[in-house]
Amino acid sequence: MSLGSKSSLMTAEAMKKCFDTVDAIDLKNVEVSLGSKGLSILYDGKSLQKYDCIYAKGSFRYAPLLMSITTAFYNNTYMPIKPNTFTIGHDKLLTHLALQYYKVPMPNTYVVSTIDAAKKILEQVKYPIILKFPQGTQGKGVMFADSFAAASSMLDAIETLKQPFLIQEYIETEGSDIRAIVVGDKVIAAMKRKAAGEEKRANIHAGGKGEPIVLDAHTRKIAVNTARSIGAEICAVDILETAKGPAVIEANISPGLQGITATTKIDVADKIAKYLYEKTKEFSEKGKKTETSKMFTDLGVGAAGKDEEQQIVTNLDFRSERILLPKIISNITKFDEEEDVVIKARKGKVSLEKY
Ligand SMILES: Nc1ncnc2c1ncn2[C@@H]1O[C@H](COP(=O)(O)OP(=O)(O)O)[C@@H](O)[C@H]1O
Ligand SMILES: [Mg+2]
Predict the structure, then answer these.
(1) Is residue 336 domain-resident?
(2) Substitution site in 176, 238, 241, 242 for ligand 1 pocket (most atoms within 8 Å of beta carbon)
(3) In a domain, 306, yes or no
(4) pLDDT digits over 161-191, tens only?
(5) Of 38, 143, 179, 350, which alpha carbon lies 20 to 30 A from 105's?
């Protein structure tokens, strides 16, 4: 489900090689209706059918729509991007807050609500400095100021736009950055981008050129943690190499695939499609398992002979970090609360026995 960019169509094509049916849904024709009849999603005026998997993406303008759609389908459909992630991922401030929470390194960033407050900060910072619109993309919302005078005049221009903005420490990288594509818990492709000429922004759309790189384990971990922090299983992460190590400047939940594919020669769309397929399978099997275990319980598996060992296939129910066993285990084992038991556990196995 997308705005129909080349990258989205590449992904849909790749998905057709794995899934039985794939529809490329145009986000512009999707409508959300809320009210007494509940939450419903309409596509071309008709109720959107159920899918096993929905990979939804779009731009920040579509964040509320994307959030509504994913909320509506969340329980029964596998989706690599969580509803809240659309709001977080399309806003650099919210992204930085999430990164801060999960202790992912980033450049020092300031948020203020008035131009006067901003000017006070700008009197104290070291130059150059970066000013950024939280919802900009392709380098278009990023401004570079090498003095207080330059920054101050930019602020006056920003004031007329009545837009929120960020002030960020400038990291000297000679106009280069790293773009890593995270899929699941792996970086599947990465490139180093170098800005054209005097340009400071390394975006391919701003004329940057990419070359393939292999990231070290630490940088890979930071990229994967970034994706996790914002709740995305698929995203691009932009990283600057600082003297103190990698610093994340952006997570992009709707990344362009053409540049990275051409640069690294890695079929990124194909890797995404295969990942989506595997996860979808896992998601629907989990649902089936829950249903099966419910069926067993409903049937009362305890029907077998009294002392016979019985087996239940189920997924585990966790209360916070603790495992809660199904009620039927109490019926079968006849353990009572006063009784001492021996718990033996190792990776992948646990047993419980009367002491
Ligand atoms: N704090 C910074 N220091 C140095 N360069 C930066 C900084 N922030 C952004 N840039 C440059 O500007 C580019 C675009 O910034 P980014 O935050 O990724 O926004 P966008 O969404 O527009 O890509 C980056 O790829 C990088 O080259
Ligand atoms: Mg970027």
Answers:
(1) yes
(2) 238
(3) yes
(4) 988 999 999 999 999 999 999 999 999 999 9
(5) 143
Residues of the domain holding 46: 6-82
Asked if residue 171 has its Cβ within 6 Å of ligand 1, the reply is yes
Whether ligand 1 lies within 6 angstroms of the CB of 142 is answered as: yes
| Residue finishing a domain among 42, 62, 82 | 82
pLDDT, tens digit, for every residue of 11-51?
999 999 999 999 999 999 999 999 988 889 999 999 999 99
Identify the three-state secondary structure at position 50.
coil
For residue 298, how far is its CA from the centre of ligand 2 (angstroms)?
53
pTM exceeding the 0.85 threshold for the entire prediction:
no
Spacing of C-alpha 135 from chain mean position: 16
Contact (Cβ atoms closer than 8 angstroms) between residue 236 and residue 224: no
User: What tokens appear for 122 in the block?
Assistant: 């700008």
Residue 303: band (very low, low, confident or very high) from pLDDT cuts 50, 70, 90: very low
Residue 38 inside a domain? The answer is yes
Structure tokens at 28: 């512009």
Side by side, the strands of the sheet bearing 142-145 are 109-111, 166-169, 129-132, 142-145
pLDDT at 301: 52
Between 296 and 324, where is the model more confident?
A: 324
DSSP letter (8 states) at residue 48: P
Q: Which two tokens stand for residue 22?
A: 């794939």
Q: Which atom of ligand 1 is nearest to the CA of 179?
A: 25
Given a cut of 80, whether residue 355 has pLDDT beyond it is yes
Residue-averaged pLDDT of the chain: 91
What three-state secondary structure class fits 97?
helix
- Hey, is 54 helix, strand or coil? coil
Give the chain's domain count: 2
The response to whether residue 253 sits with its C-beta less than 6 Å from ligand 1 reads no
Length of the chain: 355
